[in-house]
């Protein structure tokens, strides 16, 4: 009883400290802010789909599929690296200046790479030059969202972050609404792409209004900046490759549908993907819940137990979300005014894939916690290769359903390899016990 009383007192004191420190309020305010931002992004996409013709929407879905890929290049792993390096030095202006100056050099290098790669692609693939410019400009501007978010987090400016985070999507919706209401002609795919790409420019200015400017410094010794730049580029390189391979795998079906089928097929598949933006929120919440503790337990016997419990939580989430697949007809009819009935079976075929992604997500987080981003990059590459093969086998014959099937089947080998790694990883410890 004495031990129980001590434990309850410890828990009570810990909760009291968290409440007085403002941690709980900050956690929920930032979490709520991210949910609002995701919902605003979803509203923007639904609004865009409703006002575009199927042909125009297909072209928009095709080009917007490039944005996450180019964004990964524009970020070049900086968000993770900034939190890693900036958090311990928030009181040292000299080190802050060196780190931020070097991070800007990395961003300029990423922009140069984006321009060169996109320019070559436009020349050889004969793509629309204006669309390519908007994609490069948009991905570079969007990369500052995660860049500034990392600075907010490193300095513990959670209240300001919760205000700033939804602003890009809010500004997009306002501009889209005004353009739709007052434009003399019907909006096309380039109009929507332009709004999506350019609107976040305004939030770059707002960052400097919300963040305490006295805390930041943007210059440092040239030699120190050069050395820090090299360190930033080398840090997270495998995590960057894993992210790039995974994002290309996620968007690849849109490209092959555009190659083998009509713009309407691209539109139908792109619309089927829209409701899954809710899973992004869930993945983010799970990551916030699981990853920090996994990182602290890597040298502890509790790691296996906590990982098992995390997988169980993910399974419970997946089972709870499973029945929602049967609401596909109603959801698409309500959101898109019955405009895309052909997207419903595609959505239903994609749905189990996202549930399995949810179940296996703790294993991916565990690899990061164990310092194995290289293995994650290899798994993402395996997924990319199988996806390429299956896309070219199934999409020409079966169209959007073939794309959904290829997306699902292409991930199964990486899931088997990921599971096999952890079974082999824990087999020696099981034998010893």
Automatic annotation (TrEMBL):
InterPro entries: Poly_Biosynth_Transport, Polysacc_synth. The chain crosses the membrane at residues 27-47, 59-83, 104-124, 130-148, 160-179, 191-211, 232-248, 268-290, 311-331, 351-370, 375-395, 401-426. It is found in: Cell membrane. This is Polysaccharide biosynthesis protein. GO terms for cellular component: plasma membrane. Keywords: Cell membrane, Membrane, Transmembrane, Transmembrane helix. It is a multi-pass membrane protein. PANTHER family: O-ANTIGEN TRANSPORTER-RELATED, PST FAMILY PREDICTED COLANIC ACID TRANSPORTER.
């Amino acid at each position: 009883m004495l031990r129980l009383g001590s434990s309850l007192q410890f828990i009570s004191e810990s909760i009291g400290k968290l409440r007085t420190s403002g941690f709980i309020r900050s956690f929920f305010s930032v979490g709520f802010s991210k949910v609002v931002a995701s919902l605003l992004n979803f509203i923007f996409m639904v609004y865009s789909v409703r006002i575009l013709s199927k042909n125009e929407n297909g072209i928009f879905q095709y080009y917007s599929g490039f944005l996450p890929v180019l964004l990964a290049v524009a970020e070049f792993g900086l968000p993770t690296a900034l939190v890693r390096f900036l958090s311990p030095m928030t009181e040292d202006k000299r080190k802050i200046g060196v780190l931020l100056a070097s991070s800007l050099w990395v961003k300029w290098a990423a922009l140069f790479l984006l321009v060169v790669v996109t320019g070559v692609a436009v020349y050889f693939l004969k793509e629309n030059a204006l669309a390519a410019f908007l994609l490069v400009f948009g991905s570079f501007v969007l990369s500052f969202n995660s860049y500034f978010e990392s600075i907010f987090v490193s300095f513990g400016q959670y209240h300001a972050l919760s205000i700033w985070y939804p602003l890009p999507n809010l500004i997009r919706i306002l501009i889209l609404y005004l353009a739709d209401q007052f434009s003399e002609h019907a909006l096309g795919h380039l109009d929507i792409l332009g709004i999506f790409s350019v609107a976040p420019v305004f939030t770059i200015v707002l960052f400097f209004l919300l963040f305490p400017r006295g805390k930041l410094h943007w210059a440092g010794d040239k030699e120190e900046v050069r050395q820090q730049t090299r360190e930033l580029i080398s840090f997270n390189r495998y995590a960057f490759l894993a992210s790039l391979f995974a994002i290309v795998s996620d968007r690849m079906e849109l490209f092959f549908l555009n190659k083998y089928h009509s713009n309407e097929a691209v539109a139908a598949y792109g619309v089927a993907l829209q409701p899954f933006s809710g899973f992004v929120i869930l993945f983010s919440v799970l990551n916030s819940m699981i990853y920090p503790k996994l990182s602290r337990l890597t040298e502890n016997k509790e790691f296996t137990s906590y990982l098992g419990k995390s997988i169980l939580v993910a399974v419970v989430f997946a089972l709870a979300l499973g029945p929602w697949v049967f609401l596909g007809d109603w959801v698409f009819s309500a959101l898109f005014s019955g405009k895309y009935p052909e997207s419903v079976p595609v959505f239903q075929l994609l749905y189990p894939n996202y549930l399995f992604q949810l179940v296996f997500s703790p294993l991916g987080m565990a690899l990061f916690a164990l310092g194995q981003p290289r293995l994650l990059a290899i798994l993402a590459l395996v997924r990319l290769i199988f996806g390429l093969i299956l896309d070219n086998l199934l999409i020409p014959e079966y169209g959007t359903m073939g794309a959904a099937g290829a997306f699902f089947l292409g991930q199964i080998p990486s899931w088997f390899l990921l599971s096999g790694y952890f079974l082999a990883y824990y087999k020696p410890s099981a034998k010893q016990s």
